[in-house]
Amino acid sequence: MSRILITSALPYINGIKHLGNLVGSQLPSDVYARYMRARGHEVMYICATDEHGTPAEIAAAKAGKPVAEYCAEMWQTQKAIADGFGLSFDHFGRSSSRRNHRLTQHFAARLDAAGLIREVSEKMIYSNADGRFLPDRYVEGTCPNCGYDSARGDQCENCTKQLDPTDLIDPRSAISGSTDLEVRETKHLFLCQSVLAGQLEAWIDSKTDWPLLTTSIAKKWLRDGDGLQDRGITRDLDWGIPVQKGDAPWPGMEGKVFYVWFDAPIEYIAATAEWADATGQDDGAWERWWRTDKGAGDVRYVQFMGKDNVPFHTLSFPATIIGSGEPWKLVDYIKSFNYLNYQGGQFSTSKGRGVFQDQALEILPADYWRWWLMSNVPESSDSEFTWENFQAGVNKDLADVLGNFVSRVTKFCRSRFGEQVPEGGDWTEAERMVVAGLTTRLAAYQAALDAMEMRKAAAELRAIWVEGNEYLQAAAPWAAFKTDPGRAAAVVRFALNLIRFYAVLSAPFIPHAAAQMLQALGLDAADWPEDVEAALSALPAGHGFATPDVLFAKITDEQREAWAARFAGGR
RNA sequence: GGGCCUGUAGCUCAAUUGGUCAGAGCAGAGCGCUCAUAACGCUUUGGUUGGGGGUUCAAGUCCCUCCGGGCCUACCA
């Protein structure tokens, strides 16, 4: 048994996320966590909301609520949605927690003591009407290059020229539209990542088994231009973690907070501490996951994220950890994903284009989404959601191949033998062949999941389901029943055991349906099969079951068309 | 502008990292079965691997070039 620490990238707090946010971190990490638990490993699976930063403040203002209240409510909402999708976090924390405040301030103090923090004085745009400094992208104006009138302060969307907000002609606040802007001098703390660049590069180079996507992004940042740049880790905002050296004030930094990307990854650790608090345990309980001097030496730590998160997880956060000089656990493997597009374009929160997580759960059970998203997860390149593909995949895989198998076996048994596992007959060559085939398939399935190759794992699982249909067709218990009822009984007994087998193996991907299958068989739980032959003999003759309802109703053409129209845009 | 990824059957993806006639699922066609959610099984059509050039005994894989798609470029997160 090993100990596996799993973190999913933190969803940002400013509203309900669309499916793209699920597919690249939360779902694959959940499949992995469920699988590893099923294999008997000790798992700590952590996620949290990422609550700080300008967008959170703006979203709260739009909702007409104090930001703390807004975040608390949105956390509840996101938690409920995560539960709805069956995400099995050991703890779903908040980056605004007391634990994260203390830990973030602690890390800053350690970095400062190590000489890795320097003060930088910067000129920033201040909006008098908004009463706040504006990040570059929140300053709009006319592009000096092409004349586009809605260019942003970081880059002109029209001509793609990189800009400085002070370059803009007639600059205005993107928040209020106010032109009452001024340049103000402000002091910020920078993390001296450049000092650690050599260590970081050596560390990245040692990770030869990481996805290409992960290492290529990391190396790009390490080597581009003048190499890894120092990074500002503080902001002039109200909502956030106050800049302090541990418990002590930080002279000159009064009224400032840490940058959201500094405190967000630290929340992985803090959320584990929140978990210990919530379950009434002491610090040792979470430290044994995170401190290599306190028991985390044998932990394998895996992170899941979309590609946009990779620089912060390969460089900034490791710089924080390494720079602290303390024995915190560094990530062992980073599984990164590309983007999921929607019907030929991007999912768009602002345009209401695509399916949002709450809407997804309204229209279909979680397992439909889990299955399709994971069997089409963007592992090697961006992938695309279309309603046609979604309908075809779900109907064929879940309804026809798996659901119908459960249906045909249980209904046939009920009509011929009644609702208990039938007695009589013995295994023949046919059953032994299936056991041999499934043993090979199971090994491939496990290998894919061990390697976090989600598409491959899904394909193997599907192939395992198909074996059941092939077996039934060949064994034809409906024909055997007429001449040799004992043989038919043996086939049905074997097939009912296959349902149990499928429930166990499918649970990482479709936990709700798997639970229904077990429940129909009158079981609360079932162990992962270490031996296929034994697993397929687990249900004895005489064991009662209940013929389940249709496991997966098919998506009709009418539904598909209605949804395609509803989610085309304009939420 | 710079960097990275990507282009394989109508669709979605594989191909042990340079090594048998480039494979699977879906869709299409034919046959079979009748237990089942008109479900299942078997067989089968379909590819000059985006175009062109090069290296090699051997290229989907490496190099050059052109064309298309995408991402990143450090204050959105």
From TrEMBL:
Gene: metG
Record keywords: Aminoacyl-tRNA synthetase, ATP-binding, Coiled coil, Cytoplasm, Ligase, Metal-binding, Nucleotide-binding, Protein biosynthesis, Zinc
Subunit structure: Monomer.
Function: Is required not only for elongation of protein synthesis but also for the initiation of all mRNA translation through initiator tRNA(fMet) aminoacylation.
Entry GO CC: aminoacyl-tRNA synthetase multienzyme complex; cytosol
GO molecular function: ATP binding; metal ion binding; methionine-tRNA ligase activity
Cofactor entry: Zn(2+)
Catalytic activity: tRNA(Met) + L-methionine + ATP = L-methionyl-tRNA(Met) + AMP + diphosphate
Domain Methionyl-tRNA synthetase anticodon-binding: 421-570
Cofactor detail note: Binds 1 zinc ion per subunit.
Alphabetical GO biological process terms: methionyl-tRNA aminoacylation
Database matches in PANTHER family: METHIONINE--TRNA LIGASE, METHIONINE--TRNA LIGASE, CYTOPLASMIC
UniProt family annotation: Belongs to the class-I aminoacyl-tRNA synthetase family. MetG type 1 subfamily.
Binding site for ATP: 349
Short sequence motif named 'HIGH' region, residue ranges: 11-21
Biological source species: Halovulum marinum
Domain Methionyl/Leucyl tRNA synthetase: 4-409
Predominant location category: cytoplasm
Motif ('KMSKS' region): 346-350
Coiled-coil portions: 435-462
Subcellular location as annotated: Cytoplasm
Enzyme Commission number(s): 6.1.1.10
Keyword Protein biosynthesis: yes
Protein name (database record): Methionine--tRNA ligase
Residue sites binding Zn(2+) per the record: 143, 146, 156, 159
